[in-house]
Write a structure and sequence with these properties.
The protein has 425 residues and is an alpha+beta fold. It has two domains: 3-224 and 342-424, 3-Layer(aba) Sandwich (Aminopeptidase); 226-340, Alpha-Beta Plaits (2-Layer Sandwich). The chain is 34% helix and 23% strand. It has twelve helices and 18 strands. The longest helix is centred in the last third of the chain and has 21 residues, at 306-326. The structure holds (2S)-amino(hydroxy)ethanoic acid and manganese (II) ion (2 copies). One manganese (II) ion (MN) binds at residues 96, 107-108, 141, 203, 373.
């Protein structure tokens, strides 16, 4: 195939029907009937059998496109479209296909399948990019099974070690490294990635801003800081009927006190735009007539400002220290699960995305990401930025109601394609 001078990148036509069909086909893997919404949700957590099936489907699509497929030591899947000058650093486009337990069809998948759609558009235009174009599907972006988010991209960028990742366990005690082998995705490709020329990610916004601003496209300026910790409370099991209050060491009560405290911190306004979520609450023995002797909760804190985040963490730690004062004998353990600072994205790549959006006829706004993304890990080693696509229903996500229209999904991938063309030519 000879290289042709590139038609202007609006001629890079994205096949929106194929993109949509791929999103639907992938979402069918790990689908379940969600009682709370009455919708079909997706539960394809990393390194499960469902994840393996999703990975195999993705690889079949990469092979259909003639991409060179490699898998690294963390199981991250790379599909490479060779460039006219193979020795040049590639333009890397990626996201993730692992999901939370109550997912929709778009979170992560749009960015990976959008990358394939971009490569398909190059092929249809008969355009050979100067630089190679690589599409990545990062392992365990969600972090919900093994407890650390952006895991595959963080190890690839060198922030976390392979040993740390392999040693992580899920709630059944299954080790990450063993599960990776079990599903056959412990790859040979060395996990440390050579810095790409640039990294781009297309993702649904997962929030209400673009819909409120009546925009299809958002150019992402960066990601806010994230702090995940697991707090374990050790009390004493006792009879619910005979044990007077002053003799109780109630781990369940302590957990509830923490939940109320983090919401008080948010509402106080003393920590800027702090967001706090206790997503997991487990008590044991979990019986109606037994005062809980153990409680385990997770505390997810988010803040666009690192100082406010540090102060919120310090004040929460001090609160945990004081908890036993109200219940002598209570023991409190806090373990950090994930921690990332606020990450700004490359201004130059943001500008490229904004120009691409204009070229395609979309005016955009710039906004910070409330969610974490693999792009924040790539930003440590290469110029990186993201293009957001408007979500419906106030941009709800991590919920089967998550939805972006076929037109908006195609728009986001068109912007991605134009930016990839610019950066790879
Ligand atoms: O937690 C997050 O922000 C992302 O969904 N991993
Ligand atoms: Mn995501
Ligand atoms: Mn997510």
């Amino acid at each position: 195939m000879t290289a042709t001078t590139c038609p202007n990148s609006t001629d890079l036509r994205i096949d929106g029907d194929r993109l949509w069909a791929d999103l639907v086909a992938l979402a069918a893997i790990g689908s379940y009937d969600d009682e709370a919404t009455g919708l079909v949700g997706v539960n394809r957590q990393s390194l499960t059998d469902e994840d393996r099936a999703g990975r195999e489907l993705l690889i079949s699509w990469m092979e259909e496109l003639g991409l060179e497929v490699t898998i690294d030591e963390m199981g991250t899947i790379f599909g490479r479209r060779e460039g006219l000058e193979p020795e040049l650093a590639p333009v890397l486009v990626g996201s993730h296909i692992d999901t939370v337990a109550t997912a929709g069809a778009f979170d992560g998948c749009l960015g990976v399948l959008g990358g394939l759609a971009v490569i398909r558009a190059f092929a249809e235009a008969g355009l050979q990019p100067r630089r190679p174009i690589v599409v990545a599907a990062w392992t365990e972006e969600e972090g919900v099974r093994f407890g650390t988010d952006m895991l595959g991209s963080a190890v690839a960028a060198g922030r976390l070690s392979l040993d740390y990742a392999y040693g992580l366990t899920d709630e059944t005690g299954a080790r990450f490294g063993d599960e990776l082998r079990r599903i056959g995705f412990k790859g040979e490709r060395p996990v440390h990635i050579d810095p790409p020329h640039a990294y781009l990610e297309c993702h649904i916004e997962q929030g209400p801003v673009l819909a409120q601003e009546d925009r299809v496209i958002g150019i992402v300026t960066g990601v806010q800081s994230i702090s995940w910790q697991k707090v374990t409370l050790h009390g004493r099991a006792a009879h619910a009927g005979t044990t007077p209050t002053e003799l109780r060491i109630d781990a369940g009560l302590a957990a509830a006190q923490i939940i109320v405290e983090v919401r008080r911190m948010v509402d106080s306004g003393a920590y800027g735009r702090l967001r706090a979520t206790v997503g997991r609450i487990e008590t044991s023995p979990g019986l109606p007539s037994v005062v809980p002797d153990r409680a385990e909760i997770t505390v997810d804190l988010r803040n666009p400002d690192d100082e406010h985040m540090a102060r919120a963490e310090a004040d929460l730690a001090a609160f945990l220290e004081r908890l036993p004062d109200s219940q002598p004998g209570l023991r409190v353990e806090a373990a950090q699960m994930a921690r990332t600072k606020a990450v700004p994205f490359s201004e130059a790549v943001q500008d490229t995305l904004e120009t691409a959006a204009k070229e395609r006829g979309y005016d955009s706004i710039r906004l910070m990401s409330g969610a974490g993304h693999d792009a924040q890990e790539m930003a440590a080693i290469a110029p990186a930025a993201m293009v957001f696509v408007r979500g419906q229903h106030h941009g709800i996500s991590h919920n089967p109601r998550e939805y972006s229209t076929p037109e908006d999904c195609r728009a986001g991938v068109e912007v991605l394609a134009s930016a990839v063309k610019e950066l790879s030519s």
